Structures are given as structure tokens and as C-alpha cells.
Amino acid sequence: MNARQVLGVSVLALAGATAFAQTVPAEQWVGAPITTTGGAYSRSAVTADMAASRSMMSAPQEYRVGPADPATGAMSRVEVAADTNLWIRSGMSQVANRDSFDPSSPAYRAQMAAYQRMRSGPEFMAEMQRLQGARMQQTATAPSDAGSAAN
Fold first, then answer.
1. What sign does the CA torsion over 58, 61, 62, 65 have?
2. C-alpha atoms less than 13 angstroms from C-alpha of 133 in its C-beta half-sphere
3. Which residues form the signal peptide (predicted)?
4. Under 8 Å between Cβ of 86 and 127
5. Which pLDDT score, from 0 to 100, does residue 134 have?
6. Mean of the pLDDT values across residues 5-33?
7. DSSP-derived secondary structure letter, 66
8. Domain extent listing, the chain
9. CA distance 130 to 108
10. What is the pLDDT of residue 108?
11. What is the dihedral of CA 79, 81, 87, 90, to 10 degrees?
12. Number of other CB atoms surrounding residue 118 within 10 Å
């Protein structure tokens, strides 16, 4: 075959393929176009709707499972520090961070019971008082350190 024949066959094949192709309007592929000229709601209506939905975000207590979420800032800094110290002192920080963590193991249950006993017992109050005393002592000595630094 020479070059003219190959070119002629390929033109005929290409022309035949396009003759059977049908064009499909874009609406059939993606649906009707969306109008973008303006919304049905004003900016203030959308803002009011968003504010209303924020107030409805938390489910009422009767629809919840488990205890209610604590309010933000429900524990003081000293309470959190005392709780952390008791967690470490009970050994929970070493047991809970292992790769082989098993919450049903007797060792975990024993240490969790020790932590809960310390957290609900007099150890928690003693730790809080110790931390408050240390904080008060730092506060009392801070102004004299600042005054000597200024001189």
C-alpha cells in the first residue's frame, strides 16, 4: 500500500466514526444550571439561622447517653494539676500508655481502683492544698524577685 491509500482509508474511517457520534447537551450530563444571581436569603437571615442552630447544637439531657459534658473551665488549674499528680502517683500513666494495654487485665483494674480511691479520698484534697500552698509561696516571693531584678 502506498501513502495515498493509507491516508484515504484513515480519513474515511475518521469521517465514519464522527458521523455516528451524537452530541449530548450538558443538561443531560450534569443537570440544569444553577442560578448564581442571588440567594433566597439575605445575609442577616443566614446569620440569624446560624446563631439559632448554634444554640441547638447541644442535645438535651434526656437525649444523651452518659453523663453531661462538663462546662468549660469546670475544674481549676490546681484541681487539674492535683488530678494529674494522683494519676501519675497511682501508676496509671505507665499502665495506660503501653502497647500491650488491656483494660480488662487485673493489673490495670487494680491501678484504676487505686487512682479512683485516691481521687475521691483525702489524698486529692491534700494534693490540692499542697499545690495551693506552693502556688501561694511562689506568688508571695515573686514581687521581691521582680523588685531585685529592677535594681
1. positive
2. 6
3. 1-21
4. yes
5. 80
6. 73
7. S
8. 75-95+103-141
9. 28
10. 84
11. -100
12. 20
Burial of residue 86 (CB within 10 Å: 0-12, 13-18, 19+) is: buried
Lowest pLDDT segment from 29-33, 57-61, 92-96, 116-120: 57-61
Is there a contact between 150 and 142 (Cβ–Cβ < 8 Å)?
no
Q: Compute CA 23 distance to the chain's CA centroid, rounded to the nearest angstrom.
A: 48
117 to 80, 102, 110, 112: CA distances (angstroms): 17, 21, 10, 8
**Highest mean pLDDT: which range of 7-21, 28-42, 54-68, 98-112:** 98-112
Helix, strand, coil percentages (3-state) for the chain, rounded to 5, are 65, 0, 35
Neighbouring residues of 46: CB distance < 8 A, sequence distance ≥ 6: 39
Distance of CA 110 to the CA centre of its chain: 31
Q: Which three cell numbers stand for residue 150?
A: 529592677
Burial of 112 (0-12, 13-18, 19+ CB in 10 A): middle
